[in-house]
Amino acid sequence: MKIAVTMALLASAACVLLGLYCVYLKNKIKNMEFERERQLAELEEKLQGEYSVRMVDKQAKLSALQSQINPHFLYNTLECIRSEALLYDCDSIARMAKVLASFFRYSISKKENIVTLQEEFNNIENYFLIQSYRFDDKFSFEIRTAPEDRTAYSCLIPKLSLQPIVENAIFHGLETKPDKGKVTIRVEMTETNVIIVVSDDGVGIEREELERMRDALKNPKKETKTSGERNNGIALANVSQRIKLIFGDDYGLNLYSTKGIGTDVEIILPIITDKALL
C-alpha cells in the first residue's frame, strides 16, 4: 500500500515537473522567437539607416557640386558689373558690386561654420553698406569696443549669427521709423564670456509679441508663430539654438525691448579662440 502511494506521488510529481518543463520550453522558445524578431528588426533598421545615410551623402555631394556653379556665376557677373562701372567712372556702382561680391562670398562659402568675431564684423559692415545704398543712408551703424576688450575679436562665433539680428533691427525696428535710425553693436568681456549687444533705436516691440519671441528663444522647437505674424522671432531663435548646440545651454540670446524706444539683442558666448576645443 505504501509502495503504491509512493509510486502515485512520484508519478504526480513527475507529471508536475514535466508540465513545468514544458512551460519552460514553451517560454524559452517564445523568448527565442522574440529575440530573433528583435534582432531582425534591428538589422532591418540598421540597413535602412545605412541606406538613408548613403542617399543623404549622395544628395549632399550632388548639392555641393551644384552649389559650386551658381556662386562662380554670381561672382563673375558682379566682377563684370564692377569693371564696366569703373570703365565709365561710376565709382558708387563699382563699390556696390565689390561689396555685394564680398558679402555673397562670405554667406555662400561652406568652408567654415565657425568664424572669428572679427570676420563676422567685416561681413556686417558689408551688409550695412548694402542697406545704406538701398535706403539712401537713412540708417547709421557703429561698433563700440573698449580697447581692453578688443581681444574678443579673435573669439569664435557661429557663422552668420550677427547678420539676421542686424537685419531684424533694420527691417522691424528702423524701416518704419519716420526719421533716421541707428544700429549699435557693443562688445564687452567678462572673465569667462564675450557679451555682444546689438541695439537699435527703432519702434520697439509690443509686450505680447516680445513675450512670444522670448518664449521662442527658450523653447526653439515650440511653434510660436501665428498667421500674419512677422518672423523675426524665428530668425533670432535659430541663431540662439545654433549657439547652444555648439557651445552649450549656458549661452545664446536674450531679448529686451521698449515700445517706442528700441530693442537690444544680447548674445552670450564663451571665450574660445581655438576651434580644436569645440
From TrEMBL:
One of its GO terms (cellular component) is membrane. It comes from the Bacteria. InterPro entries: Bact_2-comp_sensor_kinase, HATPase_C_sf, HATPase_dom, His_kinase_dom, Sig_transdc_His_kin-like_C, Sig_transdc_His_kin_internal. Residues 162-273 form the Histidine kinase domain. It catalyses: ATP + protein L-histidine = ADP + protein N-phospho-L-histidine. The keyword Kinase applies. One of its GO terms (molecular function) is phosphorelay sensor kinase activity. The keyword Transferase applies. Keywords: Kinase, Transferase, Two-component regulatory system. Its EC number is 2.7.13.3. PANTHER family: SENSOR HISTIDINE KINASE YPDA. This is histidine kinase. It comes from Hungatella hathewayi.
